[in-house]
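# nightly structure sweep
# worker-07 picked up a monomer target from the shared queue
# config: single-sequence mode, recycle default, output format = structure tokens
# input follows
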Amino acid sequence: MKRKSHMKSPLGGFSSGISLGGTVSHYRDKQRVYRQGMPAYTLFYIQKGGVRLSTQSNHHLPAVTAILGVGDFFGELCLAGYPLRTSTAVALTASSIRTIKKKSMLQMLRKKNRTSNSLVAYLLASVKKYQDHVADLLTSTAEQRLARVLLRLAHLEKKGPAVVEIPPLNHQILAEMVGTTRSRVNLFMNRFRRKGFIDYDGGLEVHPSLRKALRHR
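# output follows
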């Protein structure tokens, strides 16, 4: 029998008892958390569900820049002094999200304890993920980029449980993340399912075997 686990936090300390303070709000599927250009006084931590970040510049259509899951922070650029939101955040599914005041988080960071060390490690890892994503766009096939997006969302890039269930994702959103068309995403997802890399059973189940798709040229 398969073992399922929901999206695993990359910050075990935060999800295992360390208090982040703040308040928890509940969002409906596709409900907006904040809009690009709004004042940025808080950051957010996903306790349940998922969030899509998108950015719009000038008169271009919005581009999906990140799909986040349980254990992820977003809106953290306020800590670096950005006064306005640089993206729009929308719940991917019914989600529970903790809102933390910028001032409170900065106070935690100054204490230089396990909480602050974990957050700094998370932020540095986020920078690397964005760099890796740009490299993927330049060097990988669309199928490989899709596989990597799913593995990252399930936190299965290197190791993890046998099966991870993530919220169902619109294929158009995945296409925007990968830089391809929705029809090609449909083709790749069906291929992944035939090979046993993923399953559809209410949610979307991602298997570590999906890493094999990264080796195919």
